[in-house]
Amino acid sequence: MLSPYVGRFAPTPSGYLHFGSLLAAVASYLDARQHQGQWLVRIEDLDTPRNLPGASEHILRTLDAYGLHWDGEIIYQSERLPLYQQVIDHWLETGQAYHCDCSRRTLLQHGGAYPGTCRERHLPAAPDHAVRVRVADQPVVFRDRLQGEFQQTADGLSGDFIIRRRDGIIAYQLAVVVDDIAHRVTDIVRGADLLDSTPRQLWLYQLLQQPAPRYLHVPLVMREDGEKLSKRLGSTPLEPRLATATLHRALTVLAQEPPPELADAPVDEQLAWAVAHWQPQRLPAKRQIPEPRT
């Protein structure tokens, strides 16, 4: 295990926190605290067209109301653009990355992995050009603490993938890796919807010659219609006044089996119990679990 332990929770301010995002926050918080580590909060606000005004503030107030108190200052990705651009510029200079003018329609015609259309075209920088990073056709393998061994071929997954979009926005895959390295994150606990992103992120760790963190991907809570709880689907925002009952429900869904008498206890008391008894291996090694009935 990398040491000392540093974990993080990294919500996007495209909406308010809902029960699904609470599960990821609680799991990452408990894992960090049980390891006597730091727990950071990072607001991933790069995708400015999707940002909801006031969402960042609401997210932070909600975390505080649920007793999920973070260490240090809040990190905002929108304030770190020069750092991401520095990496992109270096890779463009060394040939590890290149500009791409392929349209969405062109990419849809190929389907699956990017075919490398612009790899050797040596396009100049332009306002409407994306930037892609080169990948090799080799397997990326890692062992998730819950889901077990996971393997994908970087080339087969997506081909050379985008690290800066055509609209100039820094891509998630690059920003998350650069930030986790900068803040010495050792352990990432997050939802299983991001499991498929992990090989691309591990590829970037290799390019940056940095040790990768450990991963634990918790199952997603799925609605009866087969969709995950998400901001996009308008999942009910968390209410601070219901924090006591909702936190107990979250611990139950996370398979921690909190005592029934803890349901009426303050959130700090519930979290203290949960930190002492945290056993992530109790969760099923699945990507999805059904939404519990209330």
From TrEMBL:
Keyword Zinc included in the entry's annotation: yes
Record keywords, A-Z: Aminoacyl-tRNA synthetase, ATP-binding, Ligase, Metal-binding, Nucleotide-binding, Protein biosynthesis, Zinc
Motif window: 'KMSKS' region: 228-232
Gene3D superfamilies: HUPs
Cofactors that this protein relies on: Zn(2+)
Domain (Glutamyl/glutaminyl-tRNA synthetase class Ib catalytic) ranges: 8-235
Pfam families: tRNA-synt_1c
E.C. number(s) listed in UniProt: 6.1.1.-
Co-factor binding details: Binds 1 zinc ion per subunit.
Binding site for ATP: 231
Motif ('HIGH' region): 11-21
Residues given in the record as Zn(2+) binding sites: 100, 102, 114, 118
GO molecular function: ATP binding; glutamate-tRNA ligase activity; zinc ion binding
Binding residues for L-glutamate: 8-12, 44, 172, 190
GO CC terms, sorted: cytosol
GO terms, biological process: glutamyl-tRNA aminoacylation; tRNA modification
Segment forming the signal sequence: none
Root EC class: ligase
Function text: Catalyzes the tRNA-independent activation of glutamate in presence of ATP and the subsequent transfer of glutamate onto a tRNA(Asp). Glutamate is transferred on the 2-amino-5-(4,5-dihydroxy-2-cyclopenten-1-yl) moiety of the queuosine in the wobble position of the QUC anticodon.
Family, as annotated: Belongs to the class-I aminoacyl-tRNA synthetase family. GluQ subfamily.
Name used for this protein in its record: Glutamyl-Q tRNA(Asp) synthetase
Organism: Halopseudomonas bauzanensis
